Amino acid sequence: MSISAIKNLVPIPVQSFLFLISRTYKYLFVLCVGLMIAGWVMDGRMPTPDAMLPELGHEPLQQSAQVAEFTQTEHGTTYYVKPLYTYELYGLVVSKHEANSSFLSNSHARWGDYLNTTDLCVVWGSNAFSGIYQQIKFRSGEWTCFFESKGGYEVYRAFDINRVSNNHMLIGNQEVAKILRDVRIGDQIYFKGYLAEYGTASHRIRGTSTTRTDTGQGACETVYATHVQIIQEIPRIWRLLMWAGVWGIVVLYILWFFTPASSPTRQEEADDDENDDEDLDWRERYRAQRPHERH
To answer: Which portions of the chain have biased composition (kind: Basic and acidic residues) (predicted)?
Structure first.
């Protein structure tokens, strides 16, 4: 089916309406682009230090766990989970990684790890209340939270390396899984569960750090989360505005595609006039061909 045939499927009244509003397309396009850019720039901006809740001053709470090893099945794979300590933490999320979020980030799927769905890099204490996190660039890989100073060595000196942690979050239940999907960079969160080792019957997948003072490989906490709560979320309005702009551009393109170059109503009137002219010409030719009579 040709493009013109597709356009002709649109009823004439709808085409007329699209033609009438087509003058606004360029203004709506500029508006949508503005919304998209503003939303993209503002989305994920970190809150200021004065927005930190008092709970972020608490140190992570870790105590010995008297819990037996247990199993959990996800995506047809049965995992063993061995709790070592109970664990609670209040923190500001500065970076996040979701397993299998792209074709370049699929190690969890290749390893058959469907229990660790999310990694959360968080800061607390002086790192949160001093605002030093605003001078640090954080990013998450598949297993690691990376951070670098935006302001040189003095920033590193002010940053407390013992009040930042990368947490491999194991889903304790579907409610936890849902909240972890909703967590955004800039949110202040609380979670509790167990520092744990886990794996399958054939191999151990990962252990856990049990202290906040270690660094390097093995320094991440593996947390079997039984409860996760967003206690203070960043505004979601910017993400909504960004997607409103994106979808607005898509809709405008579709409307533009189906908008006729000229008014269908006027075209119909022009066609009618042309038909009338043809009828008139036919009558004139008929009269001219008739023999003239005089009385």
So the answer is: 282-295
